[in-house]
């Protein structure tokens, strides 16, 4: 019998636990370890930050959900991974032994990299708000409600070192929509700040389609070399794949145009 430990219960850890449970025998143990006892649906944090969602609508207690599938849960922060001894250590309590370890902790928020940025409770300077975590979004929503009572200029964006730029654009659109609903948009000059090489890049605007198209064409050429009589079918599917890949670049361009001329 093997024991599989999954470190992290986010959008990577929870599906990993469920999928492993579905493919391995019931005699094998699965344990999910998470610093907190809840799962947060991060994509809803921008909505939470303007009051479009309540905290309880984007947070789930993980232990009961995992228990239904015969998966154990340890809601503790891991202080040390000991790969030689195959065990996880905690600040309190006995260590947890494992046979296989899956690490799905996601990114570590490093607000201290940019002085002044981020919530104080997360090591930041307290001069900006964040939607990276549900608790950040809850605090941001309080500031948003105060802001709309006395609106003025607002800055939204992603600083250098950010691993994901999409939420900055999404939150800019969300704020724009909320302000329009409140009939306040004309009183709020908005500025988007980004460390991207160009607006709408999103960290993948140009790279993603280029890689995808290169792989598609390369594999199509390999297929033609192995099976030249299937040329028509291969070519059709290659063109369709290239079109879908190019849609990512077009989406990035449209986002840039909306940012530049609408918001």
Question: Secondary-structure map with pairings?
Answer:
Layout: E1 3-7, H1 13-23, E2 29-33, E3 38-40, H2 45-48, H3 55-58, E4 59-61, H4 62-67, E5 72-74, E6 78-82, E7 87-90, E8 96-97, E9 100-103, H5 134-149, E10 154-158, H6 166-181, E11 190-194, H7 207-226, H8 231-261
Parallel strand pairs: 1-2, 1-9, 2-5, 10-11
Antiparallel strand pairs: 3-4, 6-7, 7-8
Brief descriptors of the model:
263 residues, FAD/NAD(P)-binding domain, 2 domains, 3-stranded antiparallel β-sheet, 8 helices, 41% helix, flat
Structural features, described:
This protein is an alpha/beta fold. The protein folds into 2 domains: 3-103, FAD/NAD(P)-binding domain, CATH 3.50.50; 111-195, FAD/NAD(P)-binding domain, CATH 3.50.50.60. The protein is 41% helix and 17% strand. The protein has 8 helices and 11 strands. The strands form 4 sheets. Strands 5-2-1-9 form a 4-stranded parallel sheet. The protein has a 3-stranded antiparallel sheet with strand order 6-7-8, with no helix packed on it. Strands 3-4 form a two-stranded antiparallel ribbon. The longest helix is centred in the C-terminal third of the chain and has 31 residues, at 231-261. The mean pLDDT is 88.
Average pLDDT taken over every residue: 88
Strand content: 15-25%
User: Would you tell me which CATH topology of the largest domain applies?
Assistant: FAD/NAD(P)-binding domain
Separation of the first and last Cα atoms? 58 Å
Radius of gyration, taken over Cα atoms and rounded to an integer in Å? 23 Å
Q: What is the CATH superfamily of the largest domain? A: FAD/NAD(P)-binding domain
Order of helices and strands: EHEEHHEHEEEEEHEHEHH
CATH architecture identity of the largest domain: 3-Layer(bba) Sandwich
Oligomer: single chain
Beta strands, count: 11
Give the spatial strand order of the biggest sheet.
5-2-1-9
């Amino acid at each position: 019998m093997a024991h599989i430990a999954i470190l992290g219960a986010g959008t990577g850890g929870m599906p990993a636990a469920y999928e492993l449970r579905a493919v391995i025998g019931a005699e094998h143990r699965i344990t999910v370890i998470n610093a907190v006892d809840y799962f947060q649906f991060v994509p809803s944090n921008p909505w939470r930050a303007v009051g479009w969602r309540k905290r309880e609508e984007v947070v789930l207690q993980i232990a009961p959900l995992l228990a239904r599938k015969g998966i154990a849960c340890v809601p503790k922060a891991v202080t040390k991974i000991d790969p030689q001894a195959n065990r996880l250590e905690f600040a309190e309590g006995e260590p947890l032994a494992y046979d296989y370890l899956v690490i799905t902790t996601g990114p570590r928020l490093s607000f201290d990299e940019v002085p002044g940025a981020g919530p104080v409770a997360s090591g930041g300077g307290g001069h900006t708000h964040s939607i990276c975590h549900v608790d950040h979004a809850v605090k941001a929503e309080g500031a948003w409600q105060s802001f709309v009572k006395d609106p003025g200029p607002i800055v939204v964006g992603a600083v250098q070192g950010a691993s994901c730029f999409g939420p900055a654009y999404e939150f800019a659109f969300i704020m724009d929509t909320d302000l329009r609903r409140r009939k306040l948009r004309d009183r709020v000059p908005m500025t988007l700040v980004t460390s991207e090489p160009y607006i709408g890049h999103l960290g993948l605007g140009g790279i993603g389609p280029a890689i995808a198209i290169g792989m598609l064409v390369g594999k199509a050429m390999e297929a033609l070399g192995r099976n030249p009589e299937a040329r028509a079918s291969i070519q059709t599917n290659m063109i369709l794949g290239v079109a879908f890949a190019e849609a990512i670049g077009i989406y990035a361009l449209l986002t840039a145009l909306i940012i530049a001329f609408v918001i």
